[in-house]
Amino acid sequence: MNKFYGTGVAMVTPFDGSGQVDYNALKKLIDYLIEGGIDYLVSLGTTGESATLNKDEKKKVWAFTAEVNNGRVPLVAGIGGNNTAEVVEEIKAFDTTGYDAILSASPNYNKPTQQGIYLHYKAIAEAATLPIILYNVPSRTGSNISADTTVKLAKDFKNIIGIKEASGNFDQLNHIMRDKPEEFLMISGDDPISFPMIAMGAVGVISVVGNALPKQFSTMIDLCLEGKFKEAQHGHFDLIEFTRLMFVDGSPAGVKTALKEIGVCDDTVRLPLVQVNEDIKAKIIAETKRIIGA
């Protein structure tokens, strides 16, 4: 599972001014990320605004992404939801060509019990032909995948290979790292704390910030994975303000603002998301220019 070590990027979905998927910009983004040194791509995760794409759009984005990537880096598809039966059917119907794994967020809004979360992922694991990466993001879903549930899923299903952990709860992270199977991957789902998570055994990150700064962010992550934490500190500290700005007025609106400044894609998002306010926009542009040396 070394293919999921390092920096994965949860790609934004570029839209044109009318709100339609901009495939030219998507190709530009994919090439920009790969040339920037990222290790793998995630298509249509939360950052990709998957909640506001219809089924046909998702199929087209997944197929186009696989075609443009052309096997250059591993590819992960984000497939999740709060209707287990619907998620299972989507996974069964998914064209796996060019894809290496599925990232599936824990159900949102329903607030299932731990038993409900376990049975949700059991159904997914039994339906999937690709490896599964769990995604725990309580700030968005309204519920938490406990350490015990994560470890039980890891032990019970060999095709559940890792977790993107964005709880920010280090006590929980400690318990997972201590009790998980050796081969089970802990992946940071929270850009600001990827540095300390790698210090405790995480194998990398699935990043939002990496959309705009693939070279800078992946260099810092690589240094951490090499155990060169003192050297990595400079990059980590240098990105703190940029990272904060990415989320202060909504994501992925923040990182799309930076991508527009860089010239990769427009900053259009789909409702109910909106573009960042003018004050934050000015700060993001200033930080982007400072970091890339424009």
Automatic annotation (TrEMBL):
Its EC number is 4.3.3.7. Its main location: cytoplasm. Pfam families: DHDPS. It is an enzyme of class 4 (lyase). GO terms for biological process: diaminopimelate biosynthetic process; lysine biosynthetic process via diaminopimelate. It catalyses: L-aspartate 4-semialdehyde + pyruvate = (2S,4S)-4-hydroxy-2,3,4,5-tetrahydrodipicolinate + H2O + H(+). Keywords: Amino-acid biosynthesis, Cytoplasm, Diaminopimelate biosynthesis, Lyase, Lysine biosynthesis, Schiff base. Pathway: Amino-acid biosynthesis; L-lysine biosynthesis via DAP pathway; (S)-tetrahydrodipicolinate from L-aspartate: step 3/4. GO terms for molecular function: 4-hydroxy-tetrahydrodipicolinate synthase activity. One of its GO terms (cellular component) is cytosol. The record marks 46, 109 as: Part of a proton relay during catalysis. It comes from the Bacteria. Pyruvate binds at residues 47, 206. The active site is at residues 135, 164. InterPro entries: Aldolase_TIM, DapA, DapA-like, Schiff_base-form_aldolases_AS. It is found in: Cytoplasm. PROSITE patterns: DHDPS_2. NCBIfam families: dapA. Catalyzes the condensation of (S)-aspartate-beta-semialdehyde [(S)-ASA] and pyruvate to 4-hydroxy-tetrahydrodipicolinate (HTPA). Belongs to the DapA family. Homotetramer; dimer of dimers. This is 4-hydroxy-tetrahydrodipicolinate synthase.
